[in-house]
Amino acid sequence: MRARNNVTGKTAQRNFFEDFSPGQVLRHATPRTLTTGDQALYTALTGSRFALHSSDVFARALGLPQAPLDDFLVFHIVFGKTVPDISLNAVANLGYASCVFGVPVYPGDTLSAASTVIGLKENSSRETGVVTVRSTGVNQNGETVLDYIRWVMVKKRDPGAPAPTPVMPDLPDSVAVENIAVPKGLDVSAYDSGLAGSEHLWDDFEAGERIDHMDAMTIEEAEHQMATRLYQNTARVHFDLLAAKAGRFGKRIVYGGHIISLARALSFNGLANAFRIAAINGGRHAAPSFAGDTIAAWSQVLEKIVLPGREDLGALRLRSVALKNQPGAGFPLAGTDGKSDPAVVLDLDYTVLMPRR
Amino acid sequence: MRARNNVTGKTAQRNFFEDFSPGQVLRHATPRTLTTGDQALYTALTGSRFALHSSDVFARALGLPQAPLDDFLVFHIVFGKTVPDISLNAVANLGYASCVFGVPVYPGDTLSAASTVIGLKENSSRETGVVTVRSTGVNQNGETVLDYIRWVMVKKRDPGAPAPTPVMPDLPDSVAVENIAVPKGLDVSAYDSGLAGSEHLWDDFEAGERIDHMDAMTIEEAEHQMATRLYQNTARVHFDLLAAKAGRFGKRIVYGGHIISLARALSFNGLANAFRIAAINGGRHAAPSFAGDTIAAWSQVLEKIVLPGREDLGALRLRSVALKNQPGAGFPLAGTDGKSDPAVVLDLDYTVLMPRR
Amino acid sequence: MRARNNVTGKTAQRNFFEDFSPGQVLRHATPRTLTTGDQALYTALTGSRFALHSSDVFARALGLPQAPLDDFLVFHIVFGKTVPDISLNAVANLGYASCVFGVPVYPGDTLSAASTVIGLKENSSRETGVVTVRSTGVNQNGETVLDYIRWVMVKKRDPGAPAPTPVMPDLPDSVAVENIAVPKGLDVSAYDSGLAGSEHLWDDFEAGERIDHMDAMTIEEAEHQMATRLYQNTARVHFDLLAAKAGRFGKRIVYGGHIISLARALSFNGLANAFRIAAINGGRHAAPSFAGDTIAAWSQVLEKIVLPGREDLGALRLRSVALKNQPGAGFPLAGTDGKSDPAVVLDLDYTVLMPRR
User: Which of B141, B162, B183 is the last residue of a domain?
Assistant: First the structure.
């Protein structure tokens, strides 16, 4: 492990594995007011075109005050705040669980975030350990906009430091239906599927069904860097070519969240009516992506979920798989050796809301 | 013609030539609220710097409520909506006619669009046909912001499908002066040409006069991709390097509208007082542009137009020619063989408003 | 000196050395309303994450009406306006002095700018001369937002033109403490250093102390071009690869102001509480930067300044040094030959405000 001298101590080295303790609360820096400028950039960087996030008029017809910001933009903003405290010294972002999207975020809302350490386990190498945190993003009224668990492999400052008593959090397989939040006031009786871009509503999908989203996008360095800076995510691997040249890949790594956003935008072609992300049940960045990679995606309906008390609206549990440099046709997933197909870069299990007939 | 399997039928293949019929109306998806974020991106991506679109104070001095969005930003937003329904399976965008800019668009306005098929003609190859549509963009009050005709060469799904009875629309050479819309309330008596950046007003231009705009801009992949995604234009040729490698050029093609915007921005140097695009009379993308190309432009005054009832304001019909990898000096247009000079990428015939002395 | 023909005279060649005269006032074009869109782009292009500029809630807690735009965004907007009149024919941007940041700029404010020629001196080569101007940016209420002196080496149109009587302005070493403007209503008693991202306040810094900011960012062509166009800075060297290929470096040069913004953003790691730029005392672009360069930075505290009548707030005079393709560790500055280390691209002397304990 290379240590850089911080001569004066003013520069933050941030937390290593031994700096975390069970129950510890970390209040993250840089509260952020989100604006229509952020949404415009998100659209330009990802190609998002879901009607609800594109049009105030469409949003008002559904009972909301104006177009809410894209759900994954909110995710990345909250995630970005956690990076300096949780994962600046991480080797790998291992997974997500129990991610619930709360109240929608509108232009002018200010988000801040905090995390609680809920799991700690040193690895057998003694060089790293797994830290599990529950992170919560709230708006200026204290309402939760996002709540999720993630676990990361973090370097130890000193491999010789004693191992903590392992704490293993209980991680549910998926977000329970009673935890899915339908935005207050949402009424899809006036939902216009023509304007939304697809006639396929909740009733038309079947569990097991697979959809090739067909479109694909090639990533440029400037794009992923701009996106990641927009989220004020400071992980060095995304920005510093000089350091990256000495590293494992010899180049900058694309923020995994950018791949999530591209997969979501590509999914419009087939899932245009999946107007709201309700939850992330789990997710895995199967391989890193780099500038020059072309990202395609396919999805599978894992489950059709009836929402208690709602006849206008259902939920779909989806698996979206993002691929690099390979089309989605054929739905590649596992390689011949049983491991992930090497083209798979993302395997995301999440839940969306969709109008019913 | 290569067909990709859409296993579940959820992914839209969109319209092929035989899916169009005369009089057919297509209502396009994704209504869009435009914001100051979109304008900021447009400025950053194109270099636009016309005072009316840059300053609320300047706009108010001319009787408008605030700075309207750039006219070509509005054009690209409306155009982008038509792409999935009209030109996703197009081989070429052949031309524009009768394009009139209606009421100005302000931040907060929501645009939607529809198209009517007004022409259909199969090509002799039987593999493609020409589809002509009239597309209209409206704001949230139902006011027309843009109305134009374009024709595209679209692939047939099945070359053996029967040819429709040819319908040939009547296309005027130019937008008639009585169809030119002057924004309501516009009063240029307080127009400040010093702030606008040039002392050359309508009276100072002569028909036939040519202007080398001198500046030039080199296009990057990230720039044209971001611009095209901002417009929610989903044509695959602009984004998917993997597919492009198997195609005719082996690389991504820059959206032709991005070249229009660059030519317009470059024209500031000489035409800074052309504060409003009133019409596009015709236009041709003479050759494709690619990342790495340096775009320059020159313009010629085709006609000086007196606007009935206005002594403060006149119109100029202009031809702007955009070039790749060649300066505008010398006004390149036709090559030695009588065809377009190979450097010409755009030949646009349009009408602008400009204050009179 | 190459002259390009401007056939009609409509295209501005702008000012050469002999076009300037002492006391001359140049009123610059393109007034600009700044918006949250501009701020979002600034964040995405530079990585800025100071809490005051990121959060309306944080700003209100300090007595301001909302989050002001980043100070260097304001600087670049004003600077950009001066380029067409002052430095379009400049060979080099030589230096800055006496730069004072006035009232904060908020989304919706409209800035315009003017410059007065305060110095003129022909160089011995007779091909160029040094022009010194004092430039002032004001908002829509006529309040000064920025006031600074810069000097540039400008080409003569005609080397044989007679030399003007040299006028040498008096340039102070630094902005005097009585000229430092604290934003009206600012009250840092509720300053939350946890949200700001660092526990190190004014009291914790010592004159002479050096800080390696550790982070680094690699510049892409699309990024510096977008930033420079956002500022409506039209200097051709940043955009035109075709012309650049025939020039001294064979490639586009990054706008020096983009390096200032990157150095400022990188300085967050160590100086997160330097929430406001109050002044630039002097600055030098030691070497050009190009796309592909990785920028790192370090800073030194030159002076701790007590602000008269304020016990809640102090100022720090800082030197920030930006480096290309070399980390800040070791604080590189002078090379072995006594000249600048070749990695140094910026040496900026400026003054920031910071809360006291």
Answer: B162
CA contacts within 13 A on the Cβ side of A267: 26
Q: Give contacts of A 178-197 with B, CB under 8 A.
A: 194-197
Q: Which of A211, A215, A325 sits opposite B10 (nearest CB)?
A: A211
pLDDT 10s digits, C110-156? 999 999 999 999 999 999 999 999 999 999 999 999 999 999 999 99
CB nearest C36 (choices: A8, A35, A226): A35
Same-domain check for residues C346 and C249: yes
C165 and C202 housed in the same domain: no
Residue C10's pLDDT band (cuts 50, 70, 90): confident
Mutation target for B interface from A38, A57, A191, A205: give the one with most B CBs within 10 A. A57
Interface touch C218/A252, C-beta < 8 Å: yes
Residue A228 tokens, joined: 């990641």
Any chains having at least 3 CB pairs less than 8 A from chain A are B, C
pLDDT for the residue numbered B6: 38
Tell me the pLDDT tens digit for each residue of A280-292.
999 999 999 999 9
Helices (H), chain A: 36-46, 51-54, 56-61, 71-82, 193-196, 221-230, 241-245, 256-266, 268-271
If asked whether residues B239 and B106 sit together in one domain, one would say: no
Q: Is A82 on the interface with C (CB under 8 A)?
A: no
Q: CB atoms < 10 A from the CB of B189, how many?
A: 10
Last residue of a domain, one of C112, C136, C171: C171
Q: Is A203 part of any domain?
A: yes
Q: Does residue C293 sit in the same domain as residue C331? A: yes
With a CB-CB cutoff of 8 Å, which residues 244-283 of chain A face chain C? 252
Whether residues B143 and B219 share a domain: the answer is no
Tally of structural domains, chain A:
1
| Inside any domain, residue A7 | no
Using one digit for the tens of pLDDT, what is the confidence trace for B201-227? 999 999 999 999 999 999 999 999 999
Structural domain containing residue B144: 15-162
Q: Are residues B115 and B257 in the same domain?
A: no
pLDDT at A334: 84
* Residues of C whose CB is below 8 A from B47: 229, 232, 234, 239
- Determine whether the interchain pair B242/A294 forms a contact, defined as Cβ–Cβ distance below 8 Å: yes
Query: Could you say which of A230, A240, A242 has the minimum Cβ distance to residue C44?
Result: A230
Region B6-10: what's the mean pLDDT?
60
Whether residue B22 is found in the same domain as residue B145: yes
pLDDT of residue C8: 52
C4 with B45: Cβ contact below 8 A: no
Contact (CB<8Å) A10/C215: no
Sign of CA dihedral A257, A262, A266, A271: positive
- CATH number where C305 lies: 3.10.129.10
Going by the DSSP 8-state scheme, the letter that residue C85 receives in this structure is I
Listed in sequence order, the DSSP H helices in chain C are: 36-46, 51-54, 56-61, 71-82, 193-196, 221-230, 241-245, 256-266, 268-271
- The answer as to whether C236 is a domain residue is yes
Closest-CA residue to C256 (of C280, C275, C274): C280
Residue A321 lies in a domain: yes
Q: Does B333 touch chain C (CB under 8 A)?
A: no
- The beta-carbon neighbor of A40 closest among B11, B37, B112 is B37
| Closest residue by Cα to residue C139 from C66, C74, C232, C186 | C74
Model confidence over B126-184: pLDDT tens digits? 999 999 999 999 999 999 999 999 999 999 999 999 999 999 999 999 999 999 999 99
Q: Sign (positive/negative) of CA torsion B261, B263, B265, B270?
A: negative
User: Residues C201, C167: one domain?
Assistant: no
Chain C touched by B324 (CB under 8 Å): no
Q: At what angle do helices B71-86 and B36-46 cross, to 10 degrees?
A: 90
